[in-house]
Amino acid sequence: MTEFLQLMVSGVSLGFTYALVALGFVIIYKATEVINFSQGGLVMIGAYLVYNFTSTWGLPFALSVVLGMLATAGIGLIFERIILRRMVGAPVFAQVMITIGLLFILQNLVTAIWGPDPLNLGDPWGVSTVTFGEVVIQVRQLWGMGLTLFVLLLFFLFFRFTPLGLAMRATAIDQEAALAQGMSSKRVYMAAWGIAGATAALAGVSIASGAASLSPEVQFYALLAFPAIILGGIDSPLGAVIGGLVIGITQSLTAGYIGDIAPWLGAGFESVMPFVVMVLVLLVRPYGLFGTPEIKRV
Amino acid sequence: MARRSPYLITDYRSDLRLFGSNWKRFGLLLMVVAFIGAPLQLDNFWLGLLGLVAVYAIGGIGLNLLTGYAGQVSLGHAFFLGVGAYSAAWFGGQQGWPMLLWLPAAALIGAAMGALVGPIALRLSGQYLAIVTLGLLFIGEHFMVQWKAVTGGTRGTSVNADLAIGPVDFANLELFGITFTRNQGLFWLLWGVVALVALMAKNIARTRPGRALQAIRDRDVAAEIIGVSLSRYKVAVFALSSGIAAVAGGFYGAAVQQFVSPVEFGGIQGLVFSITFIAVIIVGGMGTISGGIVGALVVGALPRITQRFADYLPFLKSTPNDSGIILVGQFNLMLFGALIIVFLLAEPLGLAALWRRITTYFKAWPFSY
Amino acid sequence: MRRYRGRALVGAALAIALLAGACSSDDDAATTDTTAAGGGASEVTPGPGFDGTTINLGVLTPQSGLAAAIGNPLTAGNQAYFDRVNAAGGIAGKYQVELTTRDTEYQAPVAVTQYNDIKNNVAMFVQVLGTAIMDAVLPQLKTDGIFAGPATLDAFWVREPNLMPIGAPYQIQAINGLDYAVTNLDAENKTLCAMVEDSPYGDAGLEGLEHGADDLGLEITEVQTFRLGDPSYTAQVNALSGAGCELVWLTSLPTTTIPLMTESNGVGFAPTWLANSPAWNALLAEGDLATYMADNFLLMAEGPEWGDTSVAGMAQMLDDLAAYAPDQVPNIYFAFGYAQAWAAAQILEKAVELGDLSPAGIIAASEQIEALTFDGLLGDYTYGPVEDREPPRGTTVFEVDPASAATGFLVALEVDLISEAVKDYKFED
C-alpha cells in the first residue's frame, strides 16, 4: 500500500509539473489557436534567469522568481510583437513552425550564455521532505503543486473577471466579432504571450528546484507535457491540470507496475505510456477530454 | 500576326509539360552536366555532404507531397526514415538481398506503416495531427529499441546493404577501367534516385491526384463536395510520403551512415531530424518538387559553410576556449531556427517562389507583370 | 526532331564530363600513392595531416548540445597534454602537434559529415567521443584506414585494429566494485540490486556486475532500468526499496544520478550505491545532497585521487594543468582526455621511430608498441596486435567527501584494486 501511495504522490507531483507547463500552452492557444512549441524554451530561459538573479546577482529567491517571471514575460512579449504579430492570418502550420524556430534560438542562446553543465538553482527548498503517515513528500514538490493551483486560480479569475480576460475569450471565439466590439486583438495576443512567459518561468522554477537540477534538459518537460495538454483539451486550463494529473499518475503507475503486468512491453515503457494514452484518447475524442470541437463551416 | 509568346500556356497539354520552354531545357542540360561532373570536381568532404543532402532531398520531396501539397503536418517523418534504414539493415544486410530487392521492400514497408497512420489523419486535423505524429516518434523509438534482432537495440546496428544495380556496384564503382571512390559512386546513385523520385512526385503533383491533394489542403470540406475521397487520398498520401521517406532512410543507413541506432529516428533526436525535413521544404518551397531539392542543399550545406568561414567571423568560435561570443555549432542551430522564421515571414513559399518571381520579372520585362 | 537534338546535347555533355573526370580522378590516385611509401630513418615522409614539420590530429567531440559537459573538459585535457609535448619540442622532439576540433553536436549524421570534413587533413583522430558517435564513424574509419581514440570505456573497442582504447572498461569497474563490497561491506550477507541505464553503457555495467556476482557467488535480487531523460525515478526507487536492496550497482549519467539521489534521500532509501565512473558530477557533493552522498555512495573509477602527487602521472598532469589550463577544476573527463592524448603521443613517437606517419603507418605503430603507459594516471594497457590487447584491470574505489574540494570531493579508499574475479574476464568481439 505504501508503495502505491508513494507512486501516487510522485505521479500527482509530476502531473502538477506537467500541468504548470501545459497552462502556458493553453493560454497562447486560447488567444491565437497556435500550439507554441517554443514554450519549452521559455521554461528553460525562465529557470536560467532566476538562477542568474539568485546565484549570480545574489538576490533573495522570492524576488528572483518574480523578476524571472517578469523578464520571461518580456521575452514572450517581444516574440509576439516582433515576429508572431506579422504572422496573424498566416496558415497555422507556418505559425507553429515559427515557434519551433524560436525554440532552436532559445535553446542555443541559453547554452551559449550559461553553458551545458548542471547548476544549482538556488532555491530554499533543497532536498528537505515532509512525512504524512508512511508517505514522504519533498518540500519542492509541495511548492510545485501549490504554485500550479495558484496559477490555475489566477487563470480562472483572469478569464472570469478581468476585461482583458473577457476580451481574450471573445477573441478566441470570434476574432472579427470581438474586434467589432472594440476589443483589441493586438492587446490580447500580447497579453497571452506575456502570461505564457511568466507561467513558463514559474514552471521552470518548479522543475529546476532541488539539488543541481537546472540543466538545458529542463526544456524537455514541455515535450513530455504534450500528452497532458492534448488529453485535457488544448484550450481548457482546467483540462490542462486534469490532463497533467492523468498523465503524471499514469506514468508513475506504469513505471511501478508494468514490469509485473506486461513485461513483454519492455523496459522503459513508462516513457511512452503518456503518448499511447494520448493517441488512444484522441482517436475516441479528437479534441481531447475538455477541448472545444472545431466546427467546420462550408 | 504577332508571334505567340512561348510563355503563354494555351492548352492542357502544354500545361502538363515538364520542360516546356527552351530555358527549362537548358536548365535540364545544366543539371545533367552538374550531375555527371560534380563527383569529378568536388572533394570527398563535399561529396559526402551531398550524399546526406540527397537523403534530405528524397525525404523532403516525400514530406512535401504530404505537407506542401496535401497540407497534412507530420512531425513523424524521421520514424519512417528509421523504418527504411532498418529494412535496409535487415533485408539488405542480414538477408543479403540485392538493392533492387531491399529498396522496394523498404519502400513497401514504409508505405504500409504510413497507411496505418493515415486513418488517424482522417480523425484529426492540423495541430492535433502534428502532436500525434510526435507521439509516433516516441512510441516508435520504444519498439525499435525492443526489437533487438533487427535494430540492435539501444546501440544500433551496422547497415551493410548492397548498393549495386546488376554488375554496377556504386560503392566500388569501376567504369571504363577507371576506379571511382565510394563517395563518387554513391553521388551518382543517390542523385539519380533524387531525380527519379522528383520525376515521380512531379508526375503525381501535376495530374489528377496532385490537384486532389491540393484541394484537400485548401479546403477539405469543399474537396469532398467536388468528389475527392478524403479517406482514399489522405491514406494514400501518407503511404506515398512514408514510402519515399523509407527510401531516403534506406539510403541514409546503407549509403550515408552505414550504422544506425533507434535514437536517431525517435524521441528528441528524431524530432530534430523530422524538423530538419520540414525546414527543407519551408526553405525550398512548400508545394513545389524542386523546392525539396533546393531546400535540402541550403539546409544541409549552410552549417558547413559557416563552419568553413568561422575564422573570418569574429563572433564565432570553433572551440570553447577561442575568442568569440558563440560556438559554431550553437550558432548553426540558431541559424537553423532563424532560417525557418525568416523564410516564413519573408518568403513563405520558399526559394522556389523567389526564383519564380525573379524569372517572371525577366520574362515579362519591360512590363512589371 | 527537337527531342533528338536535345538528347545529342546531353550525350556530348556526358562525354566531356567523363573525360574531365578521367583526368581528375587520375590526379587523385597519383597524390595518394606518394603517401604510401615509407620515409627514411631520419626523415619522415609527409602524408595526410603531416606536412613534414607539424602533425595535425582530429578531435570529434560534442561542443554544443547536451553532451558538451563531457566533451569540453575532455578536449581541454587533450590540448593540455599536447601543449606539454609542443613545449618540449614536439613528437620525437621535432614535430609540433596541432588539433583540428569539430563539433559533433552528439548527433551521428553530423559526426560523419565532420569526419569527412577533416579526415584527409589529419594523421589520426585523438578523440571520438561517445559510443553512438564512435559506432557511426567506425565503418568509415575502416574503409579509410585511419586510426582513432574512442572516448568511452566500452569494451567494444578492445579488438578493433583502427581504434586506440585506453582505461579499464565499465565491466571491470563493476567486477572490482563488487569484490570491494564483498571484502569491506559484507556483501555476501546483503541484498544486491542494480539500477542501470537502458543503453549500451548500462548493458556494459550490468554485464560486469553479472560476471562478478557469478564469480563471487552472489545473487542479484532486483534489476531496475531507466531511460535517459525520464522525468521521475520514484518507481525504480520504490522497487529497489521494496526488494530490500542494501547494495545497488548504479550505471548512470549525472542527469540521472542527481534526481535519483534526491528521490532516494527524500524517501529515506539509503543503500550503499556503487557506481560506474561517469555517474559522478561534483555538484552532488556541493549542494544539499552532500551528506547523503558521503554516507551512501562509492564511485568506481581509475587512477589515483586528484592531487595525489606521489603518483608520477598525476603530478605531471597537475603541472601541465597549472601551466596550460589554469582555470580547469578537478574533473575526471579532463584527466581522461589528458591520458588519451598521452596515449596518442606514444603511438606517434613509435610511428616516427618506424619512419611512417601515414594513417597506415600509425596503425602499424599501434600494433608494434608493447604497451601504453601513463605513470599511474591510468593503468597500463597492453598493446601489440589486436588479439593480444589487454585493458588494465585496476579500479580505484572513491568515497564522497564534501569537505575535500581540492580532490574534486572524491577520496580514494582503495587505489588500483585488482580482484581475483576480474582476472578471468575475457574481452571478446
Gross morphology of chain C: globular
Order of helices and strands of chain C: HEHEHEHEHEHEHEHEHHEHHHEEEEH
Assembly type of the chains comes to: heterotrimer
How does the helix and strand content of chain C classify structurally?
alpha/beta
Number of helices of chain C: 14
- SS strand fraction of chain C: 15-25%
Which CATH top level class of the largest domain in chain C fits?
Alpha Beta
Query: How can the largest sheet of chain A be summarized?
Result: 2 strands, antiparallel
Low-confidence sequence ranges of chain C? 1-41
**Helical residue percent band of chain A:** over 70%
CATH superfamily of the largest domain in chain C: Response regulator
State the end-to-end CA separation of chain C.
63 Å
Q: Helix proportion of residues of chain C, in percent?
A: 40-55%
Count of helical regions of chain A: 12
Could you walk me through the main structural features you see in this protein, from its secondary elements to its overall organization?
The complex is a heterotrimer of chains A (298), B (369) and C (429). Chain A has 298 residues and is mainly α. Chain A has a domain at 17-221. Chain A is 71% helix and 3% strand. The radius of gyration of chain A is 19 Å and the shape is globular. The model of chain A has no long low-confidence stretch (mean pLDDT 89). In chain B, strand 2 (164-165) and strand 3 form a beta hairpin. Chain C folds into two domains: 54-168 and 308-392, Response regulator (Rossmann fold), CATH 3.40.50.2300; 170-301 and 396-423, Rossmann fold (3-Layer(aba) Sandwich), CATH 3.40.50. Chain C contains 14 helices and 13 strands. Chain C has helices at 2-36, 68-87, 108-118, 131-144, 170-184, 200-216, 234-242, 254-267, 283-286, 290-296, 312-324, 332-353, 359-368, 420-423; strands at residues 54-61, 96-103, 124-129, 148-151, 192-197, 220-226, 247-251, 272-276, 297-301, 371-372, 381-382, 395-400, 410-417. In chain C, helix 12 crosses helix 13 (359-368). Chains in contact: A-B, A-C, B-C. At the A-C interface, helix 1, strand 2, helix 9 and helix 11 of A face helix 2, helix 7, helix 8 and helix 9 of C.
